[in-house]
Amino acid sequence: IFFQIGGNGEAAITATEVVDGNTDIAFQNRGGGVRSEKLRIDSGGRVTKPLQPLAVIGTTQNNPTPSAGSIVQFDYVATNRGNHYNTSNYTFTCPVAGDYMVIFRHSRKGWCGDLDLQKNGTTHAFLELRETGLNGAGTPVPDWQAGSYSFIVPCAANDVLRWRVGNVYTSTGSGGYMLDGYNHIKYDAVTYYLIG
Predict the structure, then answer these.
(1) Whole-angstrom Cα distance, residue 143 to residue 136?
(2) Can you say whether the dihedral through the CA atoms of 87, 92, 93, 95 is positive or negative?
(3) What integer best gives the mean pLDDT of the chain?
(4) Do residues 43 and 18 make contact, with C-beta atoms less than 8 angstroms apart?
């Protein structure tokens, strides 16, 4: 099915046999002068959206001990579909209005403080990181502790999301590291994804 709108506007819904009689349905429209696929439903009912905004960002900061008020430096791009994440100012800009899944995953050692998920510079969600993992070797000392937190954030187009250190408290024992930073996304990463 092909739709012509005005002189340059067009859209199409196509059915394509992919293998052995299995058929996919693809939705295409024109953007930037070229008609391209925006959504596909495969023969099993699975939906893929190849242009859906997604950023998976790690860090190159190894064992940082940030101060209160600093922005968490996620600066290593694993995926940045649509280029909505800025590694210079550590922000994600929402390209369209919708609900965004934000996931914060980290490993810390002895660091105690608060983290703010900010939307347009205002706290949207707040994490209080207080407990410190302890190893069982002799005298207990701080050991690495991992955490993962997820949020759904309703946003308008051009809203800006970022992570900020709210407060820092006395670290427990040695270390005081907020992120591991080793291997960029292996232990620490932030994800932004438009869910709808």
Answers:
(1) 9
(2) positive
(3) 86
(4) yes
Q: Which two tokens stand for residue 62?
A: 């190894």
Closest CA to 161 of 65, 78, 53: 53
C-beta atoms surrounding 104 within 10 Å: 20
**Residue 35 · residue 55 · CB < 8 Å:** no
Contacts of 44 (CB under 8 A, 6+ apart): none
Q: CA torsion angle for 20, 22, 24, 25 (degrees, to 10)?
A: 120
**For 120, phi and psi rounded to 5 degrees?**
55, 40
Whether residue 173 has pLDDT greater than 70:
no
Residue type (1 letter), 100: Y
DSSP the chain: -EEEETTTEEEEEEEEEEETTEEEEEEEEEETTEEEEEEEE-TTS-EE-TT--EEEEE----S--PPTTPBP---EEEEEETS-EETTTTEEE-SSSEEEEEEEEEEEBB-EEEEEEEETTEEEEEEEE----B--SSS--B--EEEEEEEEEEE-TT-EEEEEEEEEE--SSS--BS---TTTTTS-EEEEEE--
Looking at residue 149, its pLDDT comes to: 92
Amino acid at 25: I
pTM: 0.83
Q: What is the pLDDT of residues 2-48, one digit of tens each?
A: 777 776 677 888 888 888 888 999 988 877 778 888 889 998 899 99
